[in-house]
Amino acid sequence: MTIIESAVEVNKPVAEVYAFLSNMNNHQQLMPENIYNWESTEDEARFTIQNMAKLAIKISNRIENQELTAIPTEKAPFEVELKWTLNDNGNGTTTAKHIISADLNMMMKMLASGPLQKLVDHQTQKLKEILG
Prior knowledge:
CATH class: Alpha Beta
CATH topology: Alpha-D-Glucose-1,6-Bisphosphate, Chain A, domain 4
Protein name: Orotate phosphoribosyltransferase
Number of helices: 2
Oligomer: single chain
Organism: Pedobacter kyungheensis
Structural class: alpha+beta
Number of domains: 1
GO molecular function, one term: glycosyltransferase activity
Keywords: Glycosyltransferase, Transferase
Largest sheet: 7 strands, antiparallel
Number of strands: 7
Order of helices and strands: EHEEEEEEH
Low-confidence stretches: none
CATH architecture: 2-Layer Sandwich
Distance between the termini: 33 Å
Shape: globular
């Protein structure tokens, strides 16, 4: 399993960060420009990653103010889990960590790990920008 992660500190209480992330409609704001054909509901999203794949994901697990996990609802090019973990820093700020766990063979790892790292870095930075 390949683990790709990125963490950021957001100047908002954990409940506010969780409320934003727990609605898949908000995730479109976190996506880079190479994501298109975005469709979403509160629990599910489907989109196309330019020159790569179409993905349909849904939130499979919620632990209020701590963790959100999303998994594919249709066959994906590889086994993947997207997770956000939240940590209340106790001073009105929250550390949000975005973790992608992907079952990649060596070839896929060489091709996909760079773009996946860019994706998680982009999403955590956008989260910080949007929520301040």
